[in-house]
Request: fold
Amino acid sequence: MAITESEDTEEARQLRRSLQLDGFDVSDGKTVPIEGPISVTEEKSRLLANLAASSLPRKDIIAKHLKDAENLFSEGKMHPAMGQARSAFEAGVEDTVSLVEINTKRKAGSGLKNQLQFLSNEGFISADEEQAFLSAWGFLSAGAHPGPSTR
Reply:
């Protein structure tokens, strides 16, 4: 299927989203890379490889959430995609906290904010990384709630 920049059918939007996940877009009737200094494809591969090599107890479930988020995004289902991404994020943090708790013999407390603060206090992440994680979680949480959306 060929698409143009101005084409606005559901099929064209779905194809464009799929291309964007692969790091491409359509410009002047041609497929062009949209990769900047960070390659989405390389980062996704690195994330999945690191996840597979990790000791996280739910790494398979986390990988499934990420794949589901990608598929839902390609289908234009933004709210469910954000929900799947948030589930992957939260499971990754929770599993990391569990492993650090075992090693330190200390407890994090409940809730993602307390868990991230625990990881920071234990030196597992920096204060800047804690803030970045909280910002990412806020973004994923806000985007996953039902509300007005054209998609």
About this structure: Residues 147-151 have pLDDT under 50 and may be disordered. The CA atoms of residues 14 and 89 lie 25 Å apart. The longest strand covers residues 24-27. Residues 40-144 form one domain.
